[in-house]
Amino acid sequence: MSLKQQIERALERAAFHGAAPTTLSVTEDGVRFEADVVHVERLACAFSRMEVVNAAWATAPLAKVKQVADQLSSRLTYLLEPIRTIEVDAESCTVQLRSNPPQVGDDATSYYELEARGGGSLRLQRFEKTAGEPRRPVQIEVTREVFRRLVDDFAAAN
Fold this sequence. Notes:
Distance between the termini: 21 Å
Shape: globular
Structural class: alpha+beta
Radius of gyration: 16 Å
Number of helices: 3
Number of strands: 10
Number of domains: 1
Order of helices and strands: HEEEHEEEEEEEH
Largest sheet: 10 strands, antiparallel
């Protein structure tokens, strides 16, 4: 059974049994996928973190980490905002990407943050920043179809 099929079955179980919040965790062919799912319905779900660790580029140099991050950001065109590189840290072998531009509301600014790290790790979260307050993580609400696309795109990133 493919990674995508395993995730879909786990979502089905969570929706049917009301098992959210839960952490979905699946490993296949050197790719470990995890998502902290907050809520699941028939057509949509919400999650607070999605992370993939891919053994195929676990020992890759910074140039490869940047390439993987750039390729993934070019595929994530279906999210609310485009994601672009904002920082490359050679010392920690990390590429940080954020929504560009972020979503600006009356009271707060929201944005996606994607981190690609040496060791083969990709992590997606969403944050909200209110003036005078520290940023705080918020859940990402998507259709289950978009969730499946994210799983595919993250797993294929190498």
